[in-house]
Amino acid sequence: MPSALGKTSRSPFGVASSFIVCCLLLMVSCGGAPGQGGELRSGDLLFVEDAGSALGEAISASTGSYTHVAMVWRDSALWVVEATAPEGVRRVEYGEWMAGQRGRVVAMRPSVAVDTAALIARAEAHLGEPYDSLYLPGNGAMYCSELVAECMVDMAGRPLFSQSPMRFRDESGELPPYWVDFYSGHGMAVPEGLPGTNPSGLAASPLLVRIGVSGK
Questions:
Q1: Architecture, CATH, for domain 34-214
Q2: Which residue of 27, 120, 142, 202 could cross-link 147, Cys pair, CB 3.0 to 4.6 Å?
């Protein structure tokens, strides 16, 4: 964005933004993997690559390599907040959560300031809600990226992530048999095109910077 002071002026906000990005990139280059969680803070996101199940393979085929996303919540301890099956929305100690992951975990951090007080308040309000295995909007249940999109807002209260038409088809344009069988078992058609989110879609946001990797 051009500076309001003219082309020859240098915006202090641009300098600050460049400094922040450089610091985040330095963290990555120094190997700030999320294994121990030492560098993580509230508002960081944990993306999981795990196609070791039928559901994981179906998600990967339809939306991309990430099959799950969770949020970091840090107070006197380090926690992970997630919507997962069968537990639903829960808060679990970070080390316990990491021990349960079978695939690679990629930590990302928003490059804009996150309202962590709002994040925690919203997350607390959803704790105990059931997992939304149907991936439908407004049904009183939550799936993983839906919870993240609901809780993550900037300091002005604006959502960091927006919804887009849900995609269940694979790269060839076909519906994987998993989704066809799953939804027919619930007496409904695959909700292709309804508004929603997915982990890979969130990970592609230009607002996120990778800060570490752990696992395979």
A1: Alpha-Beta Complex (3.90)
A2: 142
